[in-house]
Design brief:
homodimer; alpha/beta; 18 helices; four-stranded antiparallel β-sheet; five-stranded mixed β-sheet; 18 strands
Chain lengths: 503, 503
Amino acid sequence: MGVLTLDDPIVFMRTDCHVCRSEGLSSRSRVLLQSGGKSVVATLYQVASEMLDADEAGLSEAAWDQLDVAEGDPIVARHPNPLASFAHVRSRIFGSRLSEVQLRDIIGDIAERRYSAIETTAYLVSGSSFPMDNQEMHALTKVMVELGDTLTWPGRPIVDKHCVGGLPGNRTTPIVVAILAALGLTIPKTSSRAITSPAGTADTMETLAPVDLDLRTIRQVVEQEGGCVVWGGAVRLSPADDLLIRVERVLDLDSEGQLVASVLSKKVAAGATHLVLDIPVGPTAKIRTSAAAAALASKLEGIAGQFGITTKVVVSDGSEPVGFGIGPALEAHDVLAVLQLTPGYPTDLHLRACTLAGAALEMVERAAPGTGVAVAAQAIADGSAWLKFQRICEAQGGMRAPPVAALTQPQLAQSGGYVTAIDNRKIARVAKLAGAPGIPAAGVRMFARVGEKVSAGQPLYTVHADTGGELQYALDYVSANPDIIRVGDQRNGARPTIGDGND
Amino acid sequence: MGVLTLDDPIVFMRTDCHVCRSEGLSSRSRVLLQSGGKSVVATLYQVASEMLDADEAGLSEAAWDQLDVAEGDPIVARHPNPLASFAHVRSRIFGSRLSEVQLRDIIGDIAERRYSAIETTAYLVSGSSFPMDNQEMHALTKVMVELGDTLTWPGRPIVDKHCVGGLPGNRTTPIVVAILAALGLTIPKTSSRAITSPAGTADTMETLAPVDLDLRTIRQVVEQEGGCVVWGGAVRLSPADDLLIRVERVLDLDSEGQLVASVLSKKVAAGATHLVLDIPVGPTAKIRTSAAAAALASKLEGIAGQFGITTKVVVSDGSEPVGFGIGPALEAHDVLAVLQLTPGYPTDLHLRACTLAGAALEMVERAAPGTGVAVAAQAIADGSAWLKFQRICEAQGGMRAPPVAALTQPQLAQSGGYVTAIDNRKIARVAKLAGAPGIPAAGVRMFARVGEKVSAGQPLYTVHADTGGELQYALDYVSANPDIIRVGDQRNGARPTIGDGND
């Protein structure tokens, strides 16, 4: 019927059709549809109008694609088998631990799209309220790997890099991949789209080159260039993960256990042997204290080790956004400025990328201890990282220029003084309300930094949007939240430096 | 468009329509629709076919009814305001307590249908994993009352009765109301439909008389007859509650805090001064141990007291289903048999109803301590309760005969011996798979009792269904679960008696 519902398979049937009557189906029933060898569990919406004939069923695009049917094909509709694995979720809500077998049942059913949004939500929240233990995290990671495809590579080390997120504009990945591949390392990087942020690495990279590559093409790109930056969801490295992320995005929630498994399942499936982990810490970042960062780091290192992956954690300053751009295209412009060392390039993004690349170089003994950052910075300075990045983009299908928004609106300082704080979550919210990540050009471009002096009337940031409705929507939120950027009389205390983990 | 989605308002718009483009709306966006003075937040499904013109929007029946529009009326569609209250849910998931103000925000948004199913699920699970404290339960109850209508009565006492559920066939309410009203008490009883069970009291009562009465009619019935048994959802006594129950039903979950507030908000709104609470305890009932029953009872009594309601808790035997029928009409037949003392009437249901009615009579000093059960039983024996019940049904709109299922299938004992256990949850599942409560005639009729001797080939229970599909679906589950009724060589140990609470 041409109805777009994202991943949600929906079937429309007449209330008075013989299938609804003989099977006792009612609206919102879950229905198993079968055609040829394919099947899908869909939500039934009954129709009491002449939109359909009594012997017709209408399908949403998701149901249509999964059933792989053509107009007029016969389909069979009946009650699906009871969702036995949901009993595990229910007992998890009330505090029981989940075994590997139970997790395989749950994640398998989610990957097969047997869970409705309600059931997926209950599973996700059950693991947030009452955190998973190490055994559960290990089992969940294992199960998520086993349900998908895996990549293997002839040599080693295979390097990977991950940031736990929560810091707008922290788009180091394309730069780190370019540096490490330029220096001869292998880094087959799969990234996700935004979960709760205005842009994921895959969203940003997509404004520069295609990212939805299949496994064969990823292998070709990496064999040829040593690295890639692709969307993990296009390959089935951890097929349940993107379905979970869709719901997490609505909830603006990701739980520690799910986060560990989501990150590591993709690293294991991608064949990584060494992993650099960026954990930004700040009062409005995802991780808010050094203690929380240390706890998460130890969990990630521990589980990664059980899968043979050596991990180096870099705790970084998460007190304010990184670079200037927040939103897919705006962040891509920052990436390009760092790689090309364009005058006025964001020095914080440059330093962060070199710090992470340097940690990787030292970990795999391609740089002496203490020299990694300098080796990485040299690869940018001599242009080799920029050259490598262009070659990677070409290999992925062709480099392109990131889009520019149709509408921009600056936000001015109401009074002069020092910038004392920037609320990461609220500024990210502005970027999302303006349309990011769905609209690649939308977002926010920051001018102010914590500790900087500003005069009244000076622009603090600019909102970028493609439509008037979205621009207004973001501006309404800005008006209602005067504390997004705080300006005070006194310069704030010392700011933490990268790598020290104070907050 | 005649699309039935239960409570879910849905709007269909063309992907290329100017509203989607200018507002930046995408599939599954939440959209605020306005027409005349009415508004509704709906989920957008985009349509890429010719089903709609570019300047048309199609509405599901729920959206149509809430907007109160006619074919061709203009509607305005835009982004809804951000759902600010969901931030409270998110912090609750991670362990923060909710204040009365925060709960009013959340429950108000739910009552206004601003929460999607995903968000409602997250709220419900957040209160299950990490139970609400007394302050939260009190505040939630208060808020749920304030958001709805209330009933007031000239005299007092106003009696009410509630069972926390979990025990199939435990349909005492119509009998208790008939007894107490026959004895001159006032009992304006509002009941819910099934949450996780094959029948709620409102579902059962509806097979005997109309239950969706408005406030004015309820007042008339109670003024005339002293009592009623109506569906609480038809009046706005606690308007968020039925929306929450819809999601709880999918999850097969109700949390203690939500349960306390759900029960008490309706009692407070109905103007109750005295409450008898039935808490069945058994290994497969909702409450499984006497300790859990005592904890729940103390919470309910404590919160009820804060609203001026005196409570008497009756902990009852929850080790097996009550009466013979499980399912709306099958339970109604049991109610009629008890009230009419038909030969072979279910004695357990009779005793339970008299016990609860007796507790109410003693609490309001209409029976001397220790004599309540006998006074209640006398009202059945002398026919006054049956007469009163018929008058109540007539006053509610006319008494009718409960339907009988088209198909029945007996399940026979595989071997002889004693019935040692009946799994309440599994037998309830059979009734639900057979179509209860949606199909009123569907369900299970029990023949076996724990402790009884059965011979091989003797029927243990009969499955009732209206369609072959549903009958088969229930029978498949029966085949896969041979332990629904256990038959062993030895009679089980002593069974707990009503009121003692052992399990």
